[in-house]
Amino acid sequence: MMSPSVARRTIATPVLLGLLLIAFALVAVAVGSKPFNQTVIDIFLKVIFVVGLWVFVGNSGVISFGHIAFACLGGYVAAWTTIKPMMKGMSMPGLPDWLMQTEIPYWGSAMVAAGWAALWALIFGSVLMRLSGIAASIATFAMLAMVNSIYSNWESVTAATSSVVGIPIIRSIWPYLVAALISVFCAWAYGISRHGLALRAARDEPTAAAASGIDIPRARLIAFVISGAIMGMGGALYSHSIGIVTPDTFYLGLTFITLSMLVVGGMGSLSGAVLGVLILSTLIQTLRWLEAGVQVGEITFALPGGVQEIALGAVMILILMFRPAGIMGNKDLSLPQRAALETRGPTGPRT
Amino acid sequence: MGSLLQVLFDALSLGSLYALGALGIALIFGVMRLVNFAHGDVIAACVFALLWPSVDAVAIIFAGNLPWYLLVPFVLAFGAALSVACEALVFRRFRRANPATMMIASFALGFVIRYFLLMLFSSRPKSVSLLPALSQPVEILGARIPLLQLITIAVTMAVLFGLTAFLRRTRFGLEMRAAAENFTMARMLGVRANRVIMGAFALSGALAAAIALILGSQTGTANIMMGASVMLMAFIATVIGGMGSLAGAVLAGFLLGAVATVMQVILPPEARAFRDAFVYGAVILVLIFRPQGLLSARGTRERV
Questions:
Q1: A151 contacts in chain B (CB < 8 Å)
Q2: Which end of chain B has fewer CB atoms surrounding its CB within 10 Å, N or C?
Q3: How far apart are CA B212 and CA A167, in angstroms?
Q4: How many domains is chain B partitioned into structurally?
């Protein structure tokens, strides 16, 4: 599927990104405060979402507004499979019997969620991938709105707009870190695979790619299904991080923040996706912290409410103004060329 | 007969709102390929232009107290000015950026406008009794139609005819149509790009203000999120109509209004909650069969 030499040449990217994520996790452990822990978990979840989004958007060049729908599907899978049977009967009485009796651990639910979301990505994708450009974007948006509308109204299996409670909460950061690492490595492996290369070729030169025998809708569909699976896994873990799930958690707000992170980081590269999350999340946290007030000597400095969002929007506009292709442009993080040559020997076998 | 007429008027007035919104988005898309996500927030800002900034629960009506013949021009001018300011401060720097970047920038700008309103007015919905005389019903052939619905439809028709005349009969309209058709060519033939884009933004802002007036008198509240739902439907209408085609945007706006209203009537009661899901499903179907939109504008068609 992928040639070993390409893998060796590009392995530095996911390894560096992985080390960066591990560094964040270590900082969280070192600080040891609960809110900070939750913040880092949230960052890892965003990394999963944005990397999932990148697999499709970055490689195909088609902006998708619909991927959060797969996170929604995944989030509810977590609710369906991990809540205690008794509580499920009260909030979601319409579930079939076998599902009502199911109670599996969180990692099981994350895997089932990935499969369930991938299945729906396959179904939706086989119709939507025939479109391209702005029509495809709108169609994915219609898909998001459709899923949201169904989940907000199907009272008996989703408890409609009220929140489903009782999902086991996982407070340790390690499962989230592992999931984020898995998505980064999956995305990298897909990116250098035959299908990923074909899709990027189709993004840059659709005519030439089609003429060289690339079936563009099929190449897009493969990316769509893989990214759907990653989003589904992220959605399930999201539910486990806060313990409740509502349809509106997975709607426009999350769609836009993840898309912004992708575009600000640079949708042309995997590093852009991950760094976009890290940079915007850090910015948001800093602004929140300033909004809460900073004590300097006798005086407390605090920004008035709403400034956080205004500053975030303004910074995004400025970044895009000066770097229209995102912070990373289309480049990936890699070791400097000389160093890469020297380390190629020792790092080779480990891959 | 009466109820049928009622459905017809419901569909027409809802469609009018969508059509006005779609026009505002299509005008800008036509000249600069920008999908303007800030449009919904411009609508919300126009409603709040009637109030004096305060975070109290009770709204302090400021411009809302003007008589209607001053109020309407004031709000329209406010919308146009805000929209032009967005162009001059932000979008002008994105002339060479790709559409995805511009789209996210417009979203970020909308975010800034929304939270600026939140800072000035707080997030609580406020009641504004805007032109209360309009909510009285009128009896036509046995159907009770709110006067506001009639005015909405009449205003939309007037705007559509006015805009058509403007685009077809004036020099500026001609330049704008030329720019929408082929921007580079139009520039080479002496159309001043910045002026045309400014004009498109001003028109689009005024259309947003018209929606704000209608929404404000319809719901009687001002809410920082109030533009969002109209904007999304308008956005979808623009695409179904064929990006950049103004006639298509209007047609699709009315079509969406009609589909939503008719589904509300004909769906069985237990499926009625899923009305929106059916509407969005229909949108996907239309796009599958006509990805270029119902009336595709020349020059926007994607090749291969």
A1: none
A2: N
A3: 42
A4: 1
